[in-house]
Specification:
- It contains ten helices and 15 strands.
- The protein is α/β, with parallel strands linked by helices.
- The strands form three sheets. Strands 3, 4, 5, 6, 7, 14 and 15 form a seven-stranded mixed beta sheet that branches. It has a six-stranded parallel beta sheet with strand order 10-9-8-11-12-13, sandwiched between helices. Strands 1-2 form a two-stranded antiparallel sheet.
Length: 339
């Protein structure tokens, strides 16, 4: 076993945010190195995911979600990739092997063996395991089933999920793919880097008018990460028989007022009926097929048919600031802290 430090750093919630979090709500602290108990492995984290939905967890109201609330004094948690340092006898994970787990936001973690997933060579870059493409792929193949020639609208097209959803929709046969985003600079990148045909920009005029111009024949599929004003805009522009899949609620999670746990939207039910629009809420943790996705994702990455947009920020000391940047929408794709 390599020589280990006595302490490590982790990011804790210092105070419960009122509205959007601020730097003072977090603390990067030194803590004793965790000691693995029976049936646990000690992992040195190499990367962890910084995700906007953390706003919901630190708000303390997570009823109905698969994640626990974070209270002041707790270490934040999230998807991580780390290297096994030591493992109990009989465990399949040996020192030096990479594993995925849920105890990010710290440099070392004692993780139950059952909560670790050994990483193979399915993906050319281990960091890609922190991507959110499985949600996009599952929603587009199992919930709405993109058809050849469909016009697909992806809200938050530059987010961790949306940046993959638009590409997957194209690979599944979509004829036109439109994304929404919060800045002209990001809109240009959606088209030039991620293969979107067009992008609408929040704040550059009525969304429904922008969307109608981008999709003059209407939309067939709406992949919704946001809710809020984008949902009724999609209803107005939808074609007969359009299929909507709702996977996120960023409009509420990133709102300056409120706890980030609701995303109200006002929808006129009359066009839903007349157009026979199907709306479906979807959570990828309730369906099977992740292994299928990893095989397909790895193949697409190696062939160059898909790109994995992401930003790596070095140093755990930069994690709180990076979270604020993610909530503010400053990055395209997945954002990770590299340790």
């Amino acid at each position: 076993m390599p020589t280990l430090p006595d302490t490590h750093r982790e990011v804790k919630l210092a105070t419960r945010p009122r509205g959007l979090p601020r730097l003072g709500d977090f603390a990067v602290v030194e803590s004793p190195l965790p000691t693995p108990g029976e049936g646990e492995v000690l992992v040195r984290n190499r990367f962890f995911h910084v995700f906007a939905s953390m706003r919901m967890l630190i708000a303390g109201v997570t009823e109905g979600t698969p994640f626990p609330a974070v209270v002041p004094g707790d270490t934040l948690a999230g998807a991580a990739i780390g290297e096994v340092v030591c493992a109990p006898p009989g465990a399949k994970m040996r020192p030096g092997k990479l594993v995925a787990h849920w105890l990010g936001w710290r440099e070392y973690a004692a993780v139950p063996v059952a909560a670790c997933t050994p990483l193979g060579d399915e993906l050319p870059d281990p960091v890609a395991h922190l991507g959110q493409g499985w949600t996009a792929y599952a929603a587009l193949t199992k919930a709405v089933q993109v058809r050849p020639g469909d016009t697909v609208f992806v809200s938050a097209g530059g987010s961790a999920i949306g940046s993959i959803a638009g590409q997957v929709a194209r690979l599944l046969g979509a004829g036109r793919v439109i994304g929404s985003t919060g800045s002209r600079e990001k809109a240009d990148r959606l088209v030039s880097e991620l293969g979107y045909d067009a992008a609408v920009v929040r704040g550059e005029g009525p969304l429904v008018e922008q969307l109608a111009k981008a999709a003059p024949d209407g939309i067939d599929v709406f992949f919704d990460n946001v809710g809020g004003e984008q949902l009724p805009a999609a209803v107005e522009v939808a074609r007969d028989g359009a299929r909507f899949v709702l996977v996120g609620a960023l409009a509420g999670q990133l709102a300056a007022d409120g706890p980030g746990t609701s995303a109200p939207a006002t929808i006129d039910s009359f066009p839903l009926i007349l157009k026979q629009i199907v709306l479906r809420g979807f959570s990828s943790d309730r369906v099977d097929g992740r292994a299928e996705w990893l095989e397909q994702f790895g193949s697409w990455l190696r062939s160059g048919d898909i790109v994995f947009p992401h930003v790596r920020v070095p140093g755990i000391e930069n994690a709180p600031r990076t979270l604020l940047d993610v909530i503010d929408g400053r990055h395209l794709g997945v954002t990770v802290i590299e340790l």
